[in-house]
């Protein structure tokens, strides 16, 4: 099994990914760490606690970043995920509370307790991972691997013409995390935009997921309306689930090794820039950042089938 920490800002597509992490027999979910992003930090934590409870699982949740490291916080995009992050579907109050330690502390403790074993999957802005690195840079050598849903190389952005939301929401944190020198894979829009979960597939998942499924159904309805009006797509891109799909089924993705940089200022803030390893010699400055793996493509239908299979 794969022991992992899921760092998240739930969020409709986060909620689906959480359902996968809870359901998959080969994933051992050590805990969830929360960040602001799709919603404010308190809502993110409440949602993470609630989603685990709806699946009848008691998973530690540690609260983290309330704002970006450097830039000013933008208001959460309520038109995409709803005010409550889950499509404004009415939600009960969770009965458990978050851990007393913070998200970065939780990450550091768990990674150090099992050197070489723990995978970090981050699907929101990257402040928690950046803070964990600052707290204990030793985790760079002790983590098994880091998988980040974020960024866009050739696909263009989804919040600005060039920037993807998770990177844009905290570019300074992203720059630290993506160039820290730990084994890292970036699953960005080049892969996630190849994957479209259709209405019938959403219904199937919702029907199979019990109490959690009811919340997924309500949140899908809202997310679907956003995709229809904003993007003219009937369905949605399961961005955050793609990070888990890469982890469990990497053969469904085209992954390229190279050097990554993040633009932190100006009109292109939040853009991820990538030079494949064999092209870096053209300008040696590019070789200054450590090598990472970047997903450039995905077999969309097969990824979506994997998501549906895992949740039904
Ligand atoms: C990412 O941004 C958020 O809105 C989603 O949850 C996902 O993590 C996609 O750009
Ligand atoms: Ca997310």
TrEMBL record:
Q: One Pfam family name from the record?
A: IU_nuc_hydro
Q: Which domain of life is it from?
A: Bacteria
Q: What is this protein called?
A: Nucleoside hydrolase
Q: Which residues cross the membrane?
A: none
Please give the InterPro entries that the UniProt record associates with this protein.
Inosine/uridine_hydrolase_dom, IUNH, Ribo_hydro-like
* GO CC terms, sorted: cytosol
**By its UniProt entry, which CDD domains does this protein fall under?**
nuc_hydro_CaPnhB
Is Nucleotide-binding given among the entry's keywords?
no
Extract one GO BP annotation from the record: purine nucleoside catabolic process
Give the keywords, sorted: Glycosidase, Hydrolase
Q: Locate the Inosine/uridine-preferring nucleoside hydrolase domain: which residues?
A: 4-304
> What PANTHER family does this protein's entry cite?
INOSINE-URIDINE PREFERRING NUCLEOSIDE HYDROLASE, URIDINE NUCLEOSIDASE
* An example Gene Ontology molecular-function term: purine nucleosidase activity
Please indicate if the UniProt record lists Hydrolase as a keyword.
Answer: yes
């Amino acid at each position: 099994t794969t022991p992992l920490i899921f760092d998240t800002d739930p969020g409709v597509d986060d909620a689906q990914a959480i359902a996968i992490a809870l359901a998959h027999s080969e994933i051992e979910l050590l805990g969830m760490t929360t960040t602001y992003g799709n919603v404010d930090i308190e809502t993110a934590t409440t949602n993470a606690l609630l989603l685990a409870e709806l699946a009848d699982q008691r998973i530690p949740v540690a609260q983290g970043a309330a704002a970006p490291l450097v830039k000013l916080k933008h208001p959460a995009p309520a038109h995409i995920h709803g005010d409550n992050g889950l499509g404004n579907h009415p939600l009960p109050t969770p009965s458990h509370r978050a851990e007393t330690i913070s998200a970065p502390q939780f990450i550091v403790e768990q990674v150090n307790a099992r050197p070489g074993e723990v995978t970090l999957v981050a699907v929101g802005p990257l402040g928690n991972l950046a803070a964990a690195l600052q707290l204990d840079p030793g985790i760079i050598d002790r983590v098994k691997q880091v998988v980040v849903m974020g960024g866009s190389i050739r696909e263009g952005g989804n919040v600005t013409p060039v920037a993807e939301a998770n990177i844009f929401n905290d570019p300074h944190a992203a720059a630290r995390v993506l160039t820290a020198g730990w084994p890292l894979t970036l699953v960005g829009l080049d892969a996630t935009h190849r994957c479209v979960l259709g209405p019938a597939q959403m219904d199937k998942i919702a029907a199979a997921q019990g109490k959690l499924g009811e919340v997924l159904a309500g949140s899908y309805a809202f997310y679907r309306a956003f995709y229809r009006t904003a993007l003219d797509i009937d369905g949605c891109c399961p961005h955050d689930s793609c990070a888990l799909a890469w982890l469990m089924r990497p053969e469904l993705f085209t992954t390229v090794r190279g050097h990554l940089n993040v633009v932190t200022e100006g009109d292109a803030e939040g853009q991820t820039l990538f030079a494949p390893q064999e092209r870096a010699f053209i300008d040696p400055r590019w070789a200054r950042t450590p090598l990472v793996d970047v997903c450039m493509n995905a077999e969309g239908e097969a990824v979506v089938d994997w998501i549906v299979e895992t949740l039904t």
